Amino acid sequence: MVQAIIDIEDNTNRVLNIVKAKFGLKDKSEAINTMAKQYEESILEPELRPEYVEKAKKIMRQKKIHVGSVENLRKRLNL
Q1: pLDDT given for residue 47 in this prediction
Q2: Per residue of the chain (79 residues), what is the pLDDT tens digit?
Q3: In whole angstroms, how large is the CA radius of gyration of the chain?
Q4: What span, in angstroms and rounded, lies between the C-alpha atoms of 55 and 63?
Q5: Could you please report the per-residue DSSP string of the chain?
Q6: CA distances in angstroms from 50 to 11, 40, 41, 45, listed in the order given
Q7: What pLDDT shows up at residue 1?
Q8: Residue 41 contacts by C-beta under 8 Å, 6 or more apart in sequence?
Q9: Would you list the domain boundaries of the chain?
Q10: Amino acid 67: pLDDT
Q11: Within a 13 Å sphere around the CA of 63, how many CA atoms are in the beta-carbon half?
C-alpha cells in the first residue's frame, strides 16, 4: 500500500465525502480507491478489458467482404 499526502480542492473534498457516504466507506482513502476503480472500468481504453478482447476476436473470425475500391464500396452502400 502506498501512502500519500495530497492537496485537494474544497469541491473535490465534498465529492469524496459524497462517495464515502454513498458506498458506506470508512475513510476518504477507500473513496479514492472506489473512484479509481470506476474510472478504470468506464474510461480507460477498451482494449484493456477482457470483454473487449473477446469481442474483437469474434469480429476477426467473421467472414471478410472484399470491396475493392472506394467506388465499389459506395455502390454496395447505395451512396
Answers
A1: 62
A2: 889 999 999 999 999 999 999 999 999 999 999 999 988 878 876 666 788 888 889 999 999 888 889 998 898 888 8
A3: 23
A4: 15
A5: ---------HHHHHHHHHHHHHTT-SSHHHHHHHHHHHHHHHTS-GGGSHHHHHHHHHHHHSPP----SHHHHHHHTT-
A6: 34, 13, 11, 11
A7: 84
A8: 49
A9: 10-76
A10: 82
A11: 1
Q: How far apart are CA 31 and CA 18, in angstroms?
A: 9
Query: Cα–Cα distance between 2 and 77 in angstroms, integer?
Result: 55
C-alpha cell at 29: 482513502
Q: What is the pTM of this model?
A: 0.56
Record the cell numbers describing residue 48, joined without a space: 484493456
Distance of CA 4 to the CA centre of its chain: 25
